Structures are given as structure tokens and as C-alpha cells.
Please model this.
Amino acid sequence: MVIPYGHVSKELDIAVALEYVPRNEVDEWNWSLYDLDIMDGHPLSIQIIGRRLEEEKVLGAARVIEEALRGI
Model:
């Protein structure tokens, strides 16, 4: 299940980008691919993955996450 929830914002995300410290070499490499100038305006989403035959749990998690994002 995928829940869209906004867009990348250069103005809002610059503080996080400046303070971020990679956890390991793989994370550092992955972070080096992130460019706020290029990503500004791109859509964001959350992907929820469950085990086979556990669709109800995925839907339940999606409902809780969506309510949290909406502030319900």
C-alpha cells in the first residue's frame, strides 16, 4: 500500500540536509545521491509492506498512519 503525503520542499528540508550525519558507508553513498535542487517539488509517499495473507494488517497500519498525517 502506498500513501501519498506531500512534496519535497527545498525551503523546509534544507535544515535536515545540513545536519544529517550518515549512519554507515552505504547510508553515506545513498545520501550523496540526494540533491535538494533536483528533488524540490517531487512527490513523497509512504510504502507499507506486509507479509502474504496479512492485508488486513497493512490496511490497519495505513489507516493509523493516514490519521496521524492528517492530525485526526
